[in-house]
Amino acid sequence: QESMIKVAPGGTLLQHGTPVVELSAPFVPTHIGPIKLKQFHRWPLKRFSHGPLANYNNFVGVNPLTKHIKKKARAREAERQAAGGGEIFFMRTPEDLSGRDGELILVEYMEEHPPLLNLVGMATKIKNYYKRKPGSDAPSNKPKYGELVPAHTSPFLGQMVPGQVVQTFENNLYRTPIYEHKMPTTDFVVIRTRNEYSIREIDTIFCAGQECPLYEVPGPNSKKANNFARDFLQVFIYRLFWRSPDNPKRIKMDEIKRAFPAHSESSIRKRLKPCSQFHRTGHDSNWWVIKPNFRLPSEEEMRAMVTPEQCCAFFSMIAAEQRLRDAGYGEKSLLAQQDDDDEETAMKMDDEVKVAPWNTTRAYILAMKGKCLLQLTGPADPTGPAREGFSYVRIPNKPTNKEEVEQAPKRTVTGTDADLRKLPLKDARNILRKNGVPEDEIKKLSRWEVIDVVRTLSTEKVKAGEDGDHKFSRGNRFSIAEHQERYREDCQRIFETQNRVLASNEVLSSDESESSEEEEVNDDDLF
Amino acid sequence: MYHPPSRGPTSGHGSEPVELENQFILRIPSEPAAALKEALAVGASNIRDRFRIQIAPEKDSSNNQLRRGEVVFDGWKMSAKMVDLPTIIESQKTIDKKTFYKTADISQMLICHEGEPSEDEELPSPTKLKAKAKDPNKVDRKFVFQHGVVPPLRNCRKRRFRKTLRKKHVEAPEIEK
Prior knowledge:
The structure holds 2 protein chains of 2 kinds. Chain A is an alpha+beta fold. Chain A has helices at 18-21, 34-38, 66-82, 223-243, 253-259, 265-272, 299-305, 308-326, 331-335, 343-348, 351-354, 357-368, 402-407, 425-434, 439-444, 447-463, 479-503, 517-526; strands spanning 60-64, 103-109, 123-130, 147-150, 165-170, 174-182, 187-192, 197-201, 204-208, 212-213, 250-251, 276-279, 287-290, 373-376, 391-395. Among the domains of chain A are: 2-26 and 54-211, no CATH class; 223-309, Arc Repressor Mutant, subunit A (Orthogonal Bundle); 402-463, no CATH class. Helices cover 36% and strands 14% of the residues of chain A. The longest helix of chain A has 25 residues, at 479-503. Chain B is α+β, with helices and mostly antiparallel strands. Helices cover 19% and strands 32% of the residues of chain B. Chain B has helices at residues 30-41, 47-50, 119-122, 126-134, 156-159; strands spanning 22-27, 51-57, 66-73, 76-94, 99-114. Chains A and B meet through helix 2, strand 1, helix 3, strand 2 and strand 3 of A and strand 1, helix 1, helix 2, strand 2 and strand 3 of B. Strand 7 of chain A pairs antiparallel with strand 1 (22-27) of chain B, so a sheet runs across the interface.
């Protein structure tokens, strides 16, 4: 059943805001330095060197947005009417992607470091998965946001019960259950630009649960990561050529170097050479001029070469690398990869590396394809001491009996007197007689049926904890089924716990008190 | 983070390069909050004059992040500090209630209370000063907020976030590129 859970988001296509699709700055940065990587998605307030907000000792009036929001809504409606109604894509410019108009909601992630996060300008859908109840096609109360999607099979690790609705935030990177909450009445959102402050009242804030990744984060120095870095640079160069007003089109190395300070000049030259030529002298001296026979790829082709999703996954990788380095993990740990069928390396891998997004996203996606199971309880559970999340660490589909492995690693039967293939039929029948199997029953059985009974009897005795020689016992025949059953139960328990805890608006009284100084000191050491 | 000068077709109108807007949460005491809500709801046009914000770096600090502020609304004079939230909050806009476009990451909150900032916060202890001297990028504890905004994420730094295990024997440092 696990393998039936769909990994790819189904249904309608997502269209991101145009500035992001075109990978234009500042929506998609070309370089993120160490300080920004440490702050990944936690950007502090910018200080401005010029503009009305540059002098921070000044008081600045705050704009209400009520009128602006209405004006924008009317303008969009007018455009829709002018186009003859229907669906129009409105997110075409940076201004369209501002939080100053439209309806605004907040989504607070429960994970400290969600493995995948959108860039500003990227699109997400709210999907309300609904498990049909016999006799009714729709839930009794329809959520305010999102579209209803029938969930024939659960899109989560746990199963849904008939009549249940699970709201999710879903895009090309991940799917995550969300839980609606009311914004505290004391809280507002302030939007700050270089020129002004504006304020908005917010009604709804969702709490996002643990992400179900739909997109793999590449590993450090993997082929995927290196190809991305190459293509990202290449597409930047193509777009730079497109913007050149000259004929023939020409660009300067300096502009590329400023955008990609981490790339060596030789690696940049490598991307320039196939499409352009460097002029040392003459009219175009110091310019890279496009070759006359080179056809610049079209915008569509460039969009296909590098997607915003690839950028997000790559940025997630470099941010996690930075966190690992800061915690003292060097190149060797970073490059540790878990091979498809190598459980040994997984055992030796540091917990912090197991938790890295390239390992957790891969583990989850493989598990959804039925290639492995997940550890469920363990270091990659993002809820830490609360133990309310899933640990996305790969474990094999088949049970590994830990005690057995520890006591007698690799118990071989071949070539010993425990080899059932070499057990004479006469001896095998004797074993059955000793175990009280009636003679006429024994006579009816073929050789392999006799052997089967020997194995079953021996295994049952081991299971019952009887002493003696049970050399013919073989691991529990039903253990795979039992193993999977236990796995399903664990998934279900965690799924239900998350749904209950994150939907609850109860404030635990023990959390009200300020934490003790002592605890905070410990926190410092850990972080 | 380097943002090359935008000149593309989506980069607005020539002179001023595109910048992402900052967003943060403003938390004010319930009395002025209710009054502010009322003013916003009726679409009062003079809010710009009645409600004003000032945010500056902390005095006598080597850290130049914007941390201390004052917020004035009608008769209320509030002192404010900008704290780092434990969580990442996405601000998402929609026009059809189905598809959402991310407008910002929110990770800071301006907490306001009436009157002057309290004494203990004004005077950093000598040990804290020492710690700051070590690493100007380190966020002072008084600006590290423990709680998320939604009820289940209260106290999540301690109660929910998994703890990072530092490696005891740091692997040989790499050569900076």
